[in-house]
Amino acid sequence: MSFVSRRRLAVGAVALAGVVALSTACGEDPSSATDRDLTIVLATPPVSLDPCDTQDAANAQILRSNVLESLTRIDPESGDVEPLLAESWEGSDDNRTWTFTLKQGVEFHDGEPFDADAVSTSIDRVINSDIGCGNGTEDFFPYDLTIDVVDDTTVKVTSAEPDGIFPLRMTYVDLASPATPVDEKTRQPVGTGPYTLSEVVDGESITIEPFVDYWGDAPDASSVKYVYRTEATVRASMIKTGEADLAVPISAADATDDDRTREYSDNRVFFLRTQTNKAPFDDARVREAVHYAIDRGTITEALMDHSGESYDQIVAPTVNAYIDGYEGPSFDPDHAKQLLDAAEEDGTDVSATVELVTRPDLFPGSDEVMQAITQNLQDVGFTIKLRSIDTDPWLQLLRKPYPAEQTPNIIAISHDNISGDASFTYPKYVSSNGANSTLQNDEIDALIAKAEMETGESRAATYQEASRLLYEEEFTLVPVALQTKLLMLGTGIEYEPNGLTGVELRIGDITFTD
Amino acid sequence: MWTFLRRRLVTSAITVVGVVVVVFFLARMTGSPASLYLPESATPEQIDEFNRRNGLDRPLLAQFWDFLSGAVRLDFGESIWKQRPALDVAMNAVPPTIALAGIALALALVIALVLGSVAALYRFRTVDRIISVVTLTISSIPDFWFALVGILLFAVQMGVLPTSGYATPSAWVLPTATVMLAPIGVLTQVVRGAMIDALGASYIQNARARGFSMARLVVRHALRNASLPIISVTGDRAAGMVNGSIIVGSVFAFPGFGVVIMGAVLNRDFAVIQASVFVVGIGVILVNLAADLLYALIDPRVRIGSGKAA
């Protein structure tokens, strides 16, 4: 090819590109406030993209409030339950029947109407199907429900037991088009949100595009591409080079001092769980000793910079079981030793080998934190064997049953509760028959059961009574730190993270400042 | 030679089958992955349903029989993790892995040939020592550290390369450099040693005495004779690279085998683990075969006689 014809080819190509660009610009859909795209870099891609699996944060961060919406939502500032796709709702006097009036003018991305039938089908799919929906488990819906379609815009749900927080539970049900298959999970979630899922490149990226007929205000951003990088440093680097606009989470080592780095709490608490059915932990004094042995202050300051602060309850301050002004055991190794000595005198073998079980991905830097805790415990006389195992075996040790021949253990747990209500934590970790509970305390059980029937202030007060018994008599759960996370914003991007950011990254909250 | 190659193929094939079988049983010894795919409070019925749906409720030998009858048709089952045929998932990783390994190894070899030859020619002199120190240092650099420092330096500070990904040619620079680190040191030393041997042969001394240029002797004669050990080591390295680099994969989001197998193991996706082990095994066989053939091509003694084992 001669030089001249090659040049003509290049000019022709540029001209063509220009025409295409112009025509795309002119035919732009007014479905977002600007035509600017966003690139968001996250750590791990979701395993499931099904609307009923949004209890998995990797799934929720992309889909919730972007592609999918629910009847109600939690206001991240106040913690109140607010209307979203339900305009209003009413509970019967006994809190067993809840009637929701649906918003009108809402459409699913595939054109299916948003009406009571669709809502009923969707809720039913989450709660009653056998496909293993993460959002429909007993943790979220402990009581049997009957769903009735009253008319096109009214849905009535009747619970087998009184349930004061039913509207809160509805924040966990992301409503999917009635065309969603009921007997298997889907990889193409269809919701009512401002974006539709447009492209999934397996393991690499997920792209969402604006939905033209969205019922609400269009977010600023046009299309959004989520990409994945396992290394926190690489995520932060992508912001610095301009390859991404938002990186979440990043590690403290990559944090900058300017306003591009934002710290946020995701209502997550790091605590340890001891046992009550195995020596030496069957003696409450030994459990108590663990509390006094751990130097939370130094550990969080030195090893959890920007990721945790010393804490002495197992739920975040936004949860109703939190006791205002409560002060737990302080760091006092001498007192811990005294407790152990007393237990030993009564025949408990306090130096029996105990496994301290953790996961390498529990939270960034957890390895060093666990080593420090091991040291603390050994200093007061425990014999600790530190075990870092991956998720599957960790889950098996965490959950019942606890076979007698298992080595006694202390398990490291990082648990979040963004709902503001202790019923998402206490039944599982504190009730005697909780799946992850090592407690056996009838009084606490009675209080938890009582709280389930109550609402508002009295519900909170009852939960707090249970908390007090847990902290002052049982000592099974040992709080260490209230965790925080960091994210990084690119130039010209504004986003204020809140308690829900870890499980709901609302594109509508992201604006452009330039 | 053909008998020799045939024998090699058969032993290699048996090895691959053996590895796949061992991996099959080892992986399943970790129990059902139900707890990873189902929510924490899944009921026993849901767990049973999951196991039934994925064929995990049958006795181990029955599962093995299912697996074998599928494997001979190259059907390794469905990936629980990715919901696609497992062989697809494994095969997707092949092109990027081979491309990266191929380019890195080729570049490392070229550099090693040049530096190793120079070191051999000026052996024991300063140049030789410098080359040895530099290449051995490069080999000792931890690849994880190099990858991150590379990103911080070239992408963030200098802005001349992208941080990660593999879409553009410039995105391949850092991953390739990272993968090249380890082989450079070894290959340079092997080339150096082989060249010293080759250059010491009497016919080379003769030719030198008769005035032939050193450069011509090195390239046209010594290299050919030195190539046998070089091919051996390079083939060995290549076979190792077929596994893909987990570091490069996870730091640069490069979709090679390392990442696929790691992900499959962490997610207890037996089908993909098996398919990957199989594909990697075949890859290793092919690489070794290529090395053997190259050996035979270069060394007529291998072709004609029963030859030396590679």
A few lines on this structure:
Chain A has 13 helices and 21 strands. With 514 residues, chain A is of the alpha+beta class. In chain A, strands 1, 10, 11, 12, 13, 14, 15, 16, 17, 18 and 19 form an eleven-stranded mixed sheet that branches.
Write up what this structure looks like:
The complex is a heterodimer of chains A (514) and B (310). By secondary structure, chain A is an alpha+beta fold. Helix content of chain A is 28%, strand content 23%. In chain A, the strands form five sheets. In chain A, strands 1, 10, 11, 12, 13, 14, 15, 16, 17, 18 and 19 form an eleven-stranded mixed sheet that branches. In chain A, β5 and β6 form a beta hairpin. In chain A, α12 packs antiparallel against α13. Chain A is globular and about 85 Å long. The two termini of chain A are 46 Å apart. Chain B is an all-alpha fold and 310 residues long. Chain B contains 15 helices and no strands. The longest helix of chain B is centred in the last third of the chain and has 29 residues. The mean pLDDT of chain B is 87. Chains A and B meet through α5 and α10 of A and α2, α3, α8, α12 and α13 of B.
Fold topology:
The complex is a heterodimer of chains A (514) and B (310).
Chain A: H1 3-26, E1 38-42, H2 57-63, E2 69-70, E3 72-74, E4 81-83, E5 86-91, E6 97-102, H3 116-128, E7 145-151, E8 154-159, H4 166-169, E9 174-175, E10 195-201, E11 205-210, E12 224-228, H5 232-240, E13 246-250, E14 261-273, H6 284-293, H7 296-303, E15 308-310, H8 333-345, E16 353-358, H9 366-379, E17 383-388, H10 391-398, E18 409-416, H11 426-429, H12 442-453, H13 456-474, E19 477-489, E20 493-494, E21 511-512
Chain B: H1 2-28, H2 34-37, H3 44-53, H4 60-71, H5 86-92, H6 94-121, H7 126-140, H8 143-157, H9 173-199, H10 202-209, H11 214-241, H12 246-252, H13 257-266, H14 270-298, H15 300-304
Helix pairs in contact in B: 1-14, 5-14, 6-7, 6-9, 6-11, 7-9, 8-9, 8-12, 9-11, 11-14, 12-13, 13-14
